[in-house]
Amino acid sequence: MTALHSIRQGIPLAIEGIGKAFGAREVIRGIDLNIPAGQFVAVVGRSGCGKSTLLRLLAGLDQPSRGALLAGNGPLSAAHDDTRLMFQDARLLPWKRVIDNVGLGLSGDWRPRAREALAAVGLADRAGEWPAALSGGQKQRVALARALIHQPRLLLLDEPLGALDALTRIEMQQLIERLWQQHGFTVLLVTHDVAEAVAVADRVILIEDGRIGLDLPVDLARPRHRGDARLAALEAEVLDRVLQRPALPEQPDPVSPLPMQLRWAL
Amino acid sequence: MTFISLGQRLAPWALPVALLAVWQGAVVLGLLSTRILPAPSAVLAAGWELLGSGELWTHLAISGWRAGVGFAIGGGIGLLLGFITGLSTWGERLLDSSVQMIRNVPHLALIPLVILWFGIDESAKVFLVALGTLFPIYLNTYHGIRNVDPALVEMARSYGLSGFALFRQVILPGALPSILVGVRFALGFMWLTLIVAETISASAGIGYLAMNAREFLQTDVVVLAILLYALLGKLADVAARGLERVWLRWHPAYQARGGAQ
């Protein structure tokens, strides 16, 4: 278990005045945020508020129209190898067995490490199976193992639990929390579930209309108990804030150019 | 195995066997002239005789060679063109509409021209087979690459894959189901083209065997040649399915019955 246990500090993150526009439409209208190393931050907001776009900017999948993303002393783009993103859908390659999915993009003797990573998410015995044989929650755990094997210092989670059933969600939340405590990486979790946000995060950021609407610390000791009155109070505080504002007219999700549309050249 | 399960296994064969029996009986009783249709036993006998003299192997080998070489050339070019147009915008802009235009010419309509170009030797037949197999593979390769899930490509890129690694690990396997559909179509066109090309002009091969036998009213050999084509077509299809079962074993729809895990 040496590889996974070597402690690497999380990345401190500084987001300075970033904005992102797709054509004439501004999705992010200036966000400033400082995240200390190793903090677990949850980003919540209505759909279309720009929270997923923020994550894609951090992951380097899109480029900001203005502003700067800094990691420690340098630009975040230089720390790309230390950043891993988990998508809402697991995005496993169906033609690779589970263990080969975990080892995607690695070279050398990665198999023992891939087995460790799978063991860490409780799927050591499924290493040789095809992803099609796994349940939704298991696929997400494989995706988590795939992210962890790179020993990320910044883990970006884009509603990774959104499609899971309630019980599996709670299990996954606890798993992510435990692995975060073990490895000390910085986490940015985008979620539409406010209860989830206050249950797992150190800090909840509400994004409204492309800006930060609320920045709420969650100073509760861990392990936290679901149903705790203070958690419920915090959840209510965030929800009240979300609901007091009239809903924006329904906008389609920002369509970012996917690689397929940009096309690739070998 | 119980008697019932044995019966279930044999049931699909009952009708063909009965038909063969009726056919044989009709010829034996003189209800069916051998000029129209020879008895199944006569076809078998003809096959046995040609097998014994080694003639059958010669014809099979030459037909198989034409089909194989034509398929390799046409399929290879189709695959390459499909990769080029599927992977690059410029490739598509330059090539796709031209390829589509040529595709719309029925390749068998070119036979007179092909005879003028190549005469009636091997290259004419190989050329026709190559032309017939090129387009199904081209179209399905292009289509397969275009339909690779962009979300998977994005994921793979964010995990540091690019260039050939991205192609080999993500794009090619993603396009493979479609490419193999193209291969199966192409195999069908391969035999069809070969049959036409061999019956028009050849001095060896199964088509020649059939045309030659027609001159001498040997209906048994004609029927044998037809059956051989059917058998070869079936073999090619079984081979293509075998490829699907191996290369697409990750795909739930292609897993062998009983779930190969």
UniProtKB/TrEMBL annotation, chain A:
Which molecular-function annotations from GO does this UniProt entry contain?
ATP binding; ATP hydrolysis activity
- Which segments constitute the ABC transporter domain? 13-234
- ATP-binding listed as a keyword: yes
Q: Which SUPFAM superfamilies match?
A: P-loop containing nucleoside triphosphate hydrolases (SSF52540)
Question: InterPro entries recorded for this chain?
Answer: AAA+_ATPase, ABC_transporter-like_ATP-bd, ABC_transporter-like_CS, ABC_transporter_ATP-bind, P-loop_NTPase
Q: Which SMART domains match?
A: AAA
Q: State the UniProt keywords alphabetically.
A: ATP-binding, Cell inner membrane, Cell membrane, Membrane, Nucleotide-binding, Translocase, Transport
- Name of a matching Pfam family: ABC_tran
Key word Cell membrane present in the record? yes
A GO biological process held by the record: alkanesulfonate transmembrane transport
Q: Supply the Gene3D superfamilies for this chain.
A: P-loop containing nucleotide triphosphate hydrolases (3.40.50.300)
Q: Family assignment? A: Belongs to the ABC transporter superfamily.
What protein name applies here? Aliphatic sulfonates ABC transporter ATP-binding protein
TrEMBL record, chain B:
Classify the source by domain of life. Bacteria
Q: Which InterPro entries match?
A: MetI-like, MetI-like_sf
Transmembrane annotation, as ranges: 69-90, 102-120, 126-145, 165-183, 189-209, 221-240
Location(s) in or outside the cell: Cell membrane
Q: Classify the protein's membrane topology as the record does.
A: Multi-pass membrane protein
Biological process, per Gene Ontology: alkanesulfonate transmembrane transport
Ranges for domain ABC transmembrane type-1 come to: 60-240
Entry keyword annotation includes DNA repair: no
**Which regions form coiled coils?**
none
Question: Entry's Pfam families?
Answer: BPD_transp_1 (PF00528)
Main site of residence? membrane
**What keywords are assigned to this protein?**
Cell membrane, Membrane, Transmembrane, Transmembrane helix, Transport
PANTHER family registered for this protein in UniProt: ALIPHATIC SULFONATES TRANSPORT PERMEASE PROTEIN SSUC-RELATED, ALKANE SULFONATE ABC TRANSPORTER-RELATED, MEMBRANE SUBUNIT
Q: Please give the family membership noted in the entry.
A: Belongs to the binding-protein-dependent transport system permease family.
What name has this protein been given in UniProt?
Aliphatic sulfonate ABC transporter permease SsuC
Q: What organism is listed for this UniProt entry?
A: Stutzerimonas stutzeri (Pseudomonas stutzeri)
